[in-house]
Amino acid sequence: xxxxxxxxxxxxxxxxxxxxxxxxxxxxxxxxxxxxxxxxxxxxxxxxxxxxxxxxxxxxxxxxxxxxxxxxxxxxxxxxxxxxxxxxxxxxxxxxxxxxxxxxxxxxxxxxxxxxxxxxxxxxxxxxxxxxxxxxxxxxxxxxxxxxxxxxxxxxxxxxxxxxxxxxxxxxxxxxxxxxxxxxxxxxxxxxxxxxxxxxxxxxxxxxxxxxxxxxxxxxxxxxxxxxxxxxxxxxxxxxxxxxxxxxxxxxxxxxxxxxxxxxxxxxxxxxxxxx
Length: 276
What we know:
Elements: H1 2-36, E1 38-44, E2 53-55, E3 58-60, H2 62-71, E4 77-83, H3 86-94, E5 100-105, H4 109-114, E6 116-117, E7 122-123, E8 126-131, E9 147-150, H5 155-166, E10 173-176, H6 181-189, E11 195-199, H7 200-210, E12 215-219, E13 227-232, H8 237-252, H9 255-264
Parallel strand pairs: 1-4, 1-5, 9-10
Antiparallel strand pairs: 2-3, 5-13, 6-13, 7-13, 8-11, 8-12
Helix pairs in contact: 2-8, 2-9, 6-7
């Protein structure tokens, strides 16, 4: 009888040990799977709202949530956001500190020569913003001699620098700043300069959120699609293919439209043919 008890105890211990080994083995596999994923660091300037911004200490906004949806449940990549200044976005891509960036980035030939553009995620045309009581500016033909604030390296800064090259007899006055767009719009409302060129969604959001009822928006003609794109560092071709495919899937399953309505209040999506 004693032998039987001894044998049973040994068998039970063996079963427990086997279970412990199995559990450890399963845990090691999960840790190994996580370790095998490549971390993608995504840079953002965290502005302008509603594309990228902080709320209760957390990054959110249309582009932030699109990126989260892109990498959700990926068995190959994990994603991490890093906030930086506008110039730091591109410096970080150049130095391979960041693999990807979202910061309401539009297309320029110069950027296309240095970086990889993923498929567009939003449609966002530029507009001209002036004070309602200023009848002197009705279009881009009227900005000569007028002043504006710009952030160096932005699309609107480049546009106006090119304008000045073509209108050297009567250039527009460019005041360079590192202020965020919300601050710039507040200064325009206070008559610290005459006009601002920026994207429609950002402008309308700030006017509404900050109660800048003394400003008005003037539509501008455009010779190219006014799209917003994720930008990737050179050499990230495999990542670009993954991101492009996921954007196509998110477009088709309605995720992009849902996020557009959530953050923009309406559907501001690129043409489906342009997401291929």
